[in-house]
Amino acid sequence: MQKKSIRKSLRDFENIAWYLLPKLINISIGTYTLILIANYLGAYEFGKLSYVLAVVSIITPIASLGVDNVLVREFVVNVHKGEVFFSAFLLRLIFSIVAFILFCIYFLLYDYNNYILIAIVVSFSIIFEAVNIGRFYLQAIQAPKLSEGAETLSLLITNLLRVIGVLIKKDTLYFASLYSIQKIALFILTLIFIFFFKKMNIKGLRFSFPLTKKILSSAVFLILSHISMIIYLKVDLIMVKHMLGEKFVGIYTVSTRFIEIWYLIFHAFISFIFPRILNYKQQDKNMFMAKVQGYYSVIALLSYAVVAINLFILPYIITTLFSYEYKQSVAVLNILSFAIIFTTSGMLWARWLIAENLEKYGFLFNTFGTIINIILNFFLISIYGIEGAAISTLISSIVANYVSHILVKETRVSFIHQTMGFLLINLRGFIWKK
Asked: What is residue 411's DSSP assignment?
């Protein structure tokens, strides 16, 4: 029994490593290209590109319906994998086309001369991001070598093209197009891995109206929740653009990119454990709650370490490697770093909502946080500039991802678990037992 437990632990460690190591590789290369492009384009042009990508992130939940984790759940519990795959593909294809049209209309009506070409080439990423259903199947069957391998290859290709673009002095439009190229490459690679390596049965691909209806019923609140979540994460950048200009968007983006790097790592880790959490819920309710509690503590501990790195190491990197015009990014980074503690806890909380079929509360609390963020941004950006935007994001993150959970009876237990997690109680709950 002990040998089996040891083998299981080693296998778990290997799977986690396959989820995280590619992220670390991608982050290392991505950080290098971020420094390269930000310095090459300058704060103004880099700000223009960042603004368009921020609008993409707000529109994308319409295409994806916000049901990423729901699809993982369906691939875990549904024996008809082909039905899940094909139904989700058609559904998200339709909504991605709608999102594509809305995105283009926005830039046709607003800032046509400055942004329309960049917006058009970036907009294709919306469709290919949405229809890449295969990555959720690979997550559900816990095949990190394939899922992360596809992402790593696609990012290596596009980052190489970014470096080449700097060397041959390409314009902003070129770098914008690479965003779509990466999503297209990831889509193609994922399909290859699913049908050739995992041998998904093509004949099993068929449309299921009841399953589509079930996905849409979950999407009603999830899509609104994701939009509100993205808005409160990106509204600061949008409002900085309108109140201070593109240059300050570029400066602000440098610090937020470093924050988002950590979010990618936490997202990969939580995506890895999500199918296991679902399996434990099916087996034993008490064990399920104990494991969720343990993961809250682990994520809190990791986030504390990340905050320390951000406060004591990253400022030196920014001042050394970025040009002088980005020096104000350090102050923003210091403020936003504390939001990592609450946002990463909120990532696990969002999975808990899906497991408990309480998706509607994600929308309600994220909307509450968004309203607070917009109001605070209006006042604080006027007073403190981009530092004010960072303060607004921090406060709204605390509210949406933690404090507001005590207001509703159904989510009050998660508030208690998060509090215990921040206090690092029940860390041993992280250790999975046979």
From this structure: G
pLDDT at 422: 94
- From residue 379, give the alpha-carbon distance in Å to each of 246, 313, 329, 388: 19, 31, 20, 8
Going from the C-alpha of 197 to that of each of 22, 73, 74, 143, 379, the distances in angstroms are 19, 22, 21, 11, 54
Residue 328 · residue 382 · CB < 8 Å: no
The structural domain count of the chain equals 1
**Which residue, 81, 207, 56, 204, is CA-closest to 137?**
81
Q: Please answer whether residues 83 and 208 qualify as being in contact, where contact means their C-beta atoms are separated by less than 8 angstroms.
A: yes
Measured distance CA(109)–CA(202) in Å, rounded: 42
Q: Tell me which residue has tokens 């050739």.
A: 196
Task: Please indicate whether residue 80 or residue 413 has the higher confidence score (pLDDT).
Answer: 413
Classify 6 as helix, strand or coil. helix
* 276: nearest Cα among 259, 266, 290: 290
pLDDT digits (tens, 9 = 90+) for 106-145: 887 776 667 788 888 988 888 888 878 878 877 777 666 7
Arithmetic mean of pLDDT over the chain: 83
Pull the structure tokens for residue 383: 């007073």
Tens digits of per-residue pLDDT, 174-215? 999 999 999 999 989 888 888 776 666 666 677 788 888 887
CB 87 within 8 A of CB 74: no
Host domain of residue 142? 2-430
Distance (Å, rounded) from C-alpha 129 to C-alpha 131? 6
HEC states along 7-33?
Answer: HHHHHHHHHHHHHHHHHHHHHHHHHHH
For residue 367, give both structure tokens: 């909307």
Torsion of CA 159, 165, 170, 174, to 10 degrees: -30
Per-residue pLDDT at 56 exceeds 50: yes
